[in-house]
């Protein structure tokens, strides 16, 4: 695994727990963790439970005991590491967003295709597909339970930099992060809605803004320029005619991690909020009017996706379980030769949508058609 | 009062109750109700409690016992009636939307200005400004309790024509209704957000759609063409930099009358849903992080706007109370000579925004600047 | 109508609106309001819309233009007024609780039986039976939709005297009010649960407490003794085997008017909270486990009890509508000769339950069997 | 660890994760798991990650590499194993309820006291004390933030045997389980409320019932007798004057794991529901009436109890994290010599309360004073 910050910690739980919760055909071994700072990565290896440390990710590619490279670094390094790893024959799990630009993402897709020809797999880590509630929603939509879909409404609301005095960090630097709220959390809702719909957006229009353009540097040495968006709002269309609306922001004061979805179809509607991740709300339009209402389904029944691996009904799971499921699916994909989604090609599509939003915002919010 | 359908009934409750709930300087008398069908309007007069009936609204203008004309008819007749009534020296309360087009609305504003010079008042019936929860929100925003505002998020979701077999009605005919979801319910959220912000949108961009273009005629004689939008999604900007997103639809299956608002400011956030109209949710960013959370305020305390006229804390009010408050404020405006808002000029501004959304939708969702 | 405080105001709305909202066989006329203080009652007559005033309720009994006496006074006067009115041939609507003691209530039942023989009706004003949500719940339970019922859980939580410095009022004086939270709001949940179940409690056990035994007098002249309970918690059994739990308190800080019900049956469960009075929550145990959940039914559909008289789906009603429904049902009962419930006999049963709770509390919480 | 069913699995996660999430002075090693069926326990060891298996728990007591015995077996075996283990010098973590009878529990307390004299620790596994939300509630009550407490309201609602055809299991056999809903889930709410209050109940009164007295045997060989309660409702008093009400049931259809608490104090109120375990609701009575309301605190801030070990704000945790926290606290207690609560003596107190409820139920719900 490359990287040992927040995502490194979450992925480590995923790797440690996957074969405990699920009966996997292969059992992951946590062989090596990589970081440039030897002291830091050594402490992380101890805390997270990795067998060895490396300070250069390239070393992993030469180690025979490494089959999988898991990339948890900032977006500007994804392409280089992923392409090299795939070309070296290592299966790759890459954190989202896939890359900081469409062109990098395209190169990664090409590498993934080369690798696939040799049986080497690549997957992008959109973990929110892998909650019981979202997976159940996907299943029901695919089965046609919502009928024709009219509306997709998606918001990812956070507030961690709403305070103008909150300091400059790498995620606010376009060179490192690629984009701001749009690429970091907007990517999640674009991926998740395309996944749920089983369709890809055909066009978008939107606006972005940077509310706080300069921020104090963390070391007190002055101020830094915020070069990414603080928030983006955009609309889109799906091939089947559904209207979609999106909002991604780090300035929704009071919303800590509120990824909200609502999908309205002719036969029913679904709603979800990540701040209550064990719940899925379902309105069944087949119910008589006098009995109909949005019902709160606790997605904790043994028959629900992933839930059977955990606890009895009503005993909820938490955020990191999405990573346990991700690792389980990825490992199963490797073992069976049937790669788990999202592939790099699917992740590229997300990148293209984000890119189209940025182009629309730069062009007076004009419509950007997606091929 | 002209018109005796749904709005006529709601306004009648308003007129009957206003001076019971509030200590008004003038006491409204319910003198006459107008409808073209004598039998129908006579029954309505009896049911709603009006003293007399007329079959031609022009007659009202000649009656000395009529001081106020309340217009509850479809939008295509608003301009003619309102202008004639104002020119005849009658105070006018006109249901929203003000008119079916900007040019009609402009003529109405001109008539209102002429009338104002003679002490005759005109007001537009955006009743949702007059719920305790929305009025409290306005008060707090005006006081600066939210600080700089980052986000405005407004949706008005209904589902009454989501069934493609639901028959053709006048609200789906552009000639009668002017527009569809956009003008009917989108008008409410545009007015409400501009009212809450104390600012007017500087530009918008959006898309609209008609999901079901033909519908059965109610009399079984064939099908009719739906000539209005079924749904609209749009984004906008406020002068202070806030990003706004809007959605108006009659196809949100399961949402019966869900006008939802959320406003995120630097110092706090507010949220509201018309389906729970006695509640206002407030996040106070001054609270320590460990204690902060969205709190559900029951807006039923005697100190809350309008609420003191009603019941003890926790005893909620209903939809029609918004009309009681509207009539009370309108009558107070007449009595005091200080007209209640929204004036026709404010309502024109709403019309201009809706018009800009339609132009944007027709022009590839390009940005439409509002002067 | 006798009395012009809070209940007098609420009942006045009921009398004014009942024939507007419903197509009644008789149209109520608001002839006279009674209060001992002429100035006060005159102002109330003007505000609430009554034609005349009286300062002695006995006068009503001699007036030929009075057919109905509506008693909204404190509980210690109910028996005298109701018995005299019934014996004088006036239909009587009496606010809950029926009386301050079982023996008074028994005399009232006897008077009601005498009156019934002459076609004169008597009803007790348990208004919360007459919300769309509670009426729907009753209908479903009567239809057997919940199957065998296991649990009844009822709480009526208020907080208006939780502050120990809140002054002494008549409701805290046993001589005037009969009892405290138990008789005032506990009566509502006992009546409502017996109504919903269609069964009467067979026994109870409970405890009561007075948290604040002395309070300042409102006139500043010293302190007064609180001689009623501040809170009561009790349990009971229904004939069909259901376990019931109850709590009535004025010390639940933050709960303004939270009458909460939950009923769990073999085939499904219902939940309700008066602070969101348009909602009924329903869990249908026939749903597959993967799809089951408590659903929020907006009880605003035209087919729902009472709701058809009001607004379109999703447009909620308020507290006072329960009185409009009460008056409509009472008037319909008189017109048709089929008295509306609750009769005085039913209200006596509530009194007997409250009395049994008090006896249990006085006797070490021992079980009190109800015949 | 002795036992490998549901609790064995949950405890295993706790042991595996505790030193990953927290910086512990000692690092647990998962040495041995015990079960009578060698094949079953071997599979569990592999799945849960234990180094070795034993088929007789007595063997653990002789192994020098075992410092801690974790007892996850049914309640009828707790006393024998715990006493032997403590006497053998092993620290003991025992699942709740402590025992099946007060006398067994008393013997366990005696053994724990003997052991304590030798520095050997004993703790009972009431894991719900160790959620961020409940731990925060405890902290605030201890700080006096609620002021004088008036009401404690606790319910533990499940529905897993509400179907009368659900088969007989050991938890319905008094000889194995000791009691039914009362001892299994009622124990949790008794412990939790006593913990939150920092006080012990001074008396109780209650009733219990068995709705379904016979059930089919799982092997199809006939029916078995249910010898425990299906539900219990009871009331109690705390020394400071608070009234408490309790309900424990397995027949609340639709409630899967709903442990609900509400505590009303003079200065504020707290509410919690285990089905939304990351939320704590707080009403601050110091807020002005116009601004006050129950606020939903997401107990996921780094300053919240336990939460700093996990994810950023808004990223919730799940059920099993309570066990991670339990193991972390237990290990810390051993390492520091300051035992974590609840001690066996505290757990005995819970047992005494449950016993008093049973005695009350058997004696016409008469009051049972607790010394």
Which helices and strands occur, and which strands form pairs?
The structure is a homotetramer of 371-residue chains.
Chain A: H1 6-21, E1 32-34, H2 38-48, E2 52-54, H3 57-62, E3 68-71, H4 78-87, E4 91-95, H5 102-117, E5 122-125, H6 132-142, E6 149-157, H7 174-177, H8 181-197, E7 203-209, E8 214-216, E9 223-225, E10 231-237, E11 243-249, E12 258-265, E13 268-273, E14 279-284, E15 294-298, H9 321-336, H10 344-362, E16 368-369
Parallel strand pairs in A: 1-2, 3-4, 4-5, 6-11
Antiparallel strand pairs in A: 6-12, 7-10, 7-16, 8-9, 10-11, 12-13, 13-14, 14-15
Brief sketch in words of this structure:
Chains A, B, C, D: Keywords: Oxidoreductase. Chains A, B, C, D: Residues 1-117 form the Gfo/Idh/MocA-like oxidoreductase N-terminal domain. The structure is a homotetramer of 371-residue chains. Chain A contains 10 helices and 16 strands.
Task: Describe, in plain words, how this protein is organized in 3D.
Chains A, B, C, D: It holds the Pfam family GFO_IDH_MocA. The structure is a homotetramer of 371-residue chains. Chain A is α/β, with parallel strands linked by helices and 371 residues long. Chain A has two domains: 6-127, Rossmann fold; 128-362, Dihydrodipicolinate Reductase, domain 2 (2-Layer Sandwich). Helix content of chain A is 34%, strand content 22%. Chain A contains ten helices and 16 strands. In chain A, the strands form four sheets. The first copy, chain A, has a nine-stranded mixed sheet. In chain A, strands 3-4-5 form a three-stranded parallel sheet, with helices on both faces. A two-stranded parallel ribbon of chain A has the order 1-2. The model of chain A has no long low-confidence stretch (mean pLDDT 96). At the C-D interface, β6, β7, β10, β11 and β12 of C face β6, β7, β10, β11 and β12 of D. β15 of chain A pairs antiparallel with β15 (294-298) of chain C, so a sheet runs across the interface.
